[in-house]
Amino acid sequence: MGNQTQEFDVCIVGSGAAGGFMAKELCEGGAKVIMLEGGKEVRPDELISHKWPYELPFANLRQEKQAYFYQGDVATSIRYDAQAGIYVDRARVLGGRTMHWNAVTLRYAPSDFREWTLAGVEDDWPLTYEELAPYYERVEQVIGVCGNDDGLEILPGGKHYLPPLPWRCSEHILKRATDALNINLISVRKAVLTKPYDERPQCHHCGHCMDGCDVSAIFSSPGCTLPKAAATGNFTLRQNALAREILVDREGLARAVSFVDTNTGKTEETKAHIVVVCCATVESARLLLNSVSPQHPAGLGNSSGVVGHYLHGHINNSAQVYLKELQGTKPVNQDGATDHVYIPRFDYRDSHRGYAGGYAFQVNYDSYMFPRQAMLMKGYGAGFKRQVRTMQPGYMILGGYGKSMAVKQNYVSVDKNQVDAHGIPIPVIHFQFVENDMLVWQGMNKGLQQIVSELSGDVFRDNGGPSGLASHEVGTIRMGKDPKTSALNSFCQSHEVKNLFVTDGSCFTTSSEKNPTLTIMALSMRAAEYIIKQRRLGIV
Amino acid sequence: MKRRTVLKIIALSALSTHLDAWGAMFARSSDKRAAWAWAAGDYKLQFFTPEENDLLDRVMELIIPADGHSGGAHAANVSLFADRIVSTGSDVANVDLFVNQAVSSDSQKSEWRKGLQLFQQEAAKSSIAEVLARASTGEAKPQTDLERFFVTLKQMTLAGYYSSEIGIHQDLEYQGNTYLYEFPECTQH
Questions:
Q1: Interface predicted TM-score (ipTM)
Q2: For A164, which residue in chain B has the nearest alpha carbon?
Q3: How far apart are CA A424 and CA A78, in angstroms?
């Protein structure tokens, strides 16, 4: 089933948020596209999201429900040279992390693209919010986003939202507290359908977003963008095709992708005029760094030495609150669609905060099934058991997501001496939070304390140090105006390999406190439009 | 048929299967009869001896006892859950757990065995209830082997109990994990 003789217009590597949109847009634009995906499809009827813990061999304590998304040896073929609490997420499944996400979809603010100009740190992006805004709008319409335009400069809104998710009692109580502090609490914006949309059913409020949505009410590329690509007749999908390296011609342009068929173990090639890399921040950098040739001795498109560097993402903390008003009340179904509300960044109003960037809080992103307070309370016996039961209806969790800086010393490398099950050098994560990150984290702790102090309840704070990168890692193949300090131009096109594009989170110049996936999809859509135009003009 | 056509058909058929499955999912409900053996009660011990299991069962029942509201750790077969977890400590690749303390790798098996032996020895001098009370006094900052074992034992008990049918449905009266077409807005607060 190889494609050695067939030459495609475009080969997309990776089928997640970026790859899915790239495939849809290119196929609808008339390009003949092949997509290589290292994993395989997990059909909705294969998911076990709704299984009870006691129906599973390890009661889901070993995350059996999510094991489908980590196929092969992807979970173990990585090494960390990083501080404690650092973790990057590498899914391997058709759809990538769109199969395994909470779907919070937030636009970056205009200021998030201009860190150097406004704060004198990092770099400005080579594009502005205004340039990306039309693509945000179009992506939101394709995927279906619930929520409101709240009129906040720090969190720009769109025009086509589905109805917001209803609020739980804990969220109304939280609103009283945030109102008292003059902090905004808004309906969350999520790629979750609150009514039937585009032939997809609405959410059934089971709370299993992260375990895989069995009806595709939450956006995933296999449930939305890939069928649209397939419907054009221009799309070819190759699953279990793990990219080994991108091959180049004598001029150093990409000519093919070498991949391993993980079923047969055989290495094959697929030829294409254009290669678009969408394997996510760690894996995309790994692929380029493993694509060494005489023309590109430091890795593909890496004469600047930038590829792999500037790894960053979110810095986190959290608190569990058991609200007194709700303790001891009759248990009701509170699962919903996990987060229903969101606390947007508010620290920007403090000009003396002493750090660049800021933080926001996600709320109730976790299941109500397991009483987490039991693991944190001291004691045992009948009183302990009764107390756990009494507290459970009052459960609320607040999770802080803060900006971490894009700095060169944090990076992904590949270890030529340590290979995965298919002989491909594994990635190594080098990461330490820097001073500004820690100041953001301290500010986030203060903000969290401020909010929980306004609430009457039992509070369990995360007393460990900072953690990250919250599955939101970005930045390893960054965009920029200067080819000496960046790998891609504003259309995610390699500065030096003109038929190479990278449109996943690795293309970010800097990040903010906001979840990155909506921006990834908007950038991918914009790059796809650029590719279509360039092809028509015969330039690429 | 050309190879490329075959590939397209494969891709399209997979995706159309996906589309068909959406409707089917609504008819499917979770089958409680599919409970794992440790929960169903016909489980054969893999690691603990019957004597160790008996001790474990008694201690766990003291940690989460039956009361007028719901069954306790004994009724929920939590000691069998512990046997399942301890005996299979490292056989699952994806082991990013939120109850790390309760998870036993192969190297931790001996610590479980030693812990139970220590508990048994101490209980022989007094009673299980007294040993448990003494072991729990250092829960915040365990210093002795007995205190450290208490933390492990308690975490395992909680993980097993609150993932059991009794813990979820009887004790917590958890109402979720279902298909709820309309999620009600809270109007009382």
A1: 0.93
A2: B185
A3: 11
